[in-house]
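Illustration: Transport permease protein.
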Amino acid sequence: MTENVRGSFHIQTRVISALLMREIITRYGRNNIGFLWLFVEPLLITLAILAIWTFSGAHTVSKLNIVAFMLTGYPMTMMWRDAANRSLNAIGSNISLLYHRNVRVLDVFTSRILLELAGNTVAFIGLMLVFIFIGIIPAPANILYMVYAWVLVAWFGSALGLIVGVLAERIEVFGQLWRAFSMVLMPISGAFVFVDSVPFTVQKVLLWMPMVHGTEMLRHGYFGTVVRTHENPWFLIVVNVVMTFVGLVMVQKYSRGVEPS
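Result:
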């Protein structure tokens, strides 16, 4: 029994690794810097947002380091949003691969989501290290708490990706609607504001958004006691468990009706 489980795990690991490589080559090609675009793309977008905030004078509004503030908000928002967006049309563009016995619908979603999580994580770590090294931002107060926050939001993005991916396959217009809706979610994701800085009634609304708790946690870990945050990690964990269960059930039911063409 144990050998069978180990063998199945080994096969699925190889399948997902192969899907990851195929996705990288299909998306970025073999020329120029190739797969490095996986990390450079989110890095450039984050740098552009940082530049806009810095040169617009936003750093004069607060004594808080504006680069650190943006760096602890926008990349995390990009991560869960990209994980969901890349799940759109994941099956449609890889339908022929499902002819292979060991390739499942869940593997296709997993490979795309892992790719986005990895790209955004490496870009975030790279920017943090560079900015700390050249003295633009100070070192974090609690790195472990930041890692805890990042993992929880990566989990949230993965579960969200499964749900969004299946809905987009079942409902033709859902993909376009989701892209627009995700843009609406960004300003209320906590990326551009501290929960503590908005009126109490707005705080209660923001704290119903799971990703806000992740952003507050990340900023708590980075700034420490310098700022007041309002996160509830257990709320985010419960939401992640429920969303993961729903996502896996949706993928299982959808998989039964998929016919490779």
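Reading the tokens back as a structure: The chain has one domain: 1-256.
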